[in-house]
Amino acid sequence: MEFSPVFDPPTWREEYRELFESKNVNDAREYVEQYGNEPLDTDHELRDLIDGMGADLHGFERIYPVADQDLALVFINPGLNWRGSQQHLDDNLQLSRADPTDWTRRCAISMDGGFKYLTSHNEDHSAFGRLRKILRKIGEETSVMSELAATMKRPVEFFADVYYTNWYKYATYSVGKIDGEIKDTDSFVSEQLRKELNAVDPELVLLLGKQPWVYGLRSYSTPLTGAPSDARISESQNHLFKCDLSDSSFYVLPFNHPSDRNRSRAVGLDSGRFGESLRRFKKEASI
Questions:
Q1: 61: CATH
Q2: What is the pLDDT of residues 73-125, one digit of tens each?
Q3: Does some domain include residue 107?
Q4: DSSP string, 83-142
Q5: Which of the 8 DSSP states describes residue 273?
Q6: CA-to-CA distance for 115 and 152, rounded, in angstroms?
């Protein structure tokens, strides 16, 4: 499979650094204390580990390649759970040690972590199982994602077909750490997501989580399969929307995030309604 990604420096990096500076967050220790929910003064082992990351906050960001993908996968934020997942610890350490301007290396680390998050690290999680089922169905019934990529056997096929991103770009302990600060439609977080999608120009966006939907795309989207125009994320699941931005338009399928505390609501797949939305997408997009 041909995979010719573009590794560009993120346009949002400086804006995030300005946000962190405004909160007196200037190095890795201050970042973890503010956004990682970890009292480092009582955990000397973790403190020494974090101090080894130094003043570089780039270890907490995620950058994914652009490769003219027709499908975009949008989550809320990368995780920062030092206790519960060695994966997050490894990702952040690797990124902190990579050259901040080595976009190829930084994308490779981000891709590896993102792919494991979707597959091996959540292999037995029912909501992630439903998400993988949705991706397989998209691969089987449309041309925006190949059936080979939808099997999720190797990241190179997956990322050749899927542009992967987050509404909030830096790793945080929970949504609560950012929800009170940056959640309105006009925030630079939501604005950056729209700029990204304008540039990527996908045919279809599979969106997972309340924040990127309510604050990012909902007010720019028109329901096509019976959902209310101001639908909450739970009401929007399985429905198809048409999103019109300044320089692009695409279709959106919103779902609750797979880590939603209500396990039955997380990625609440309704096979009948979802199938109807896919058929409508194929007809509208001629795919």
A1: 3.40.470.10
A2: 999 998 876 554 455 567 878 888 888 888 889 889 999 989 999 998 888 89
A3: yes
A4: TT-HHHHHHHHHHHHS-TT-HHHHHHHHHHHHHHHHTGGGTT-HHHHHHHHHHHHHHHH-
A5: H
A6: 8
Length of the chain: 287
4 falls within a domain: no
Give per-residue pLDDT as tens, 167-221. Answer: 999 888 777 667 666 666 668 889 989 999 998 999 999 999 999 999 999 999 9
Name the one residue in this structure whose structure tokens are 């690797």: 94
Structural domain count of the chain: 1
Q: Is residue 5 part of a domain?
A: no
Task: Examine residue 176 and state whether it is found in any structural domain, yes or no.
Answer: yes
Q: Which residues contact 283 (CB under 8 A, 6 or more apart)?
A: none
Amino acid identity of residue 171, one-letter, is A
Residue 62 CA neighbour count, 13 Å, CB half: 26
Structure tokens at 248: 């692009």
- By residue range, what is the domain housing residue 32? 13-285
For the CA atoms of 186, 192, 198, 199, the dihedral, rounded to the nearest 10 degrees, stands at 160
Looking at residue 182, its pLDDT comes to 66
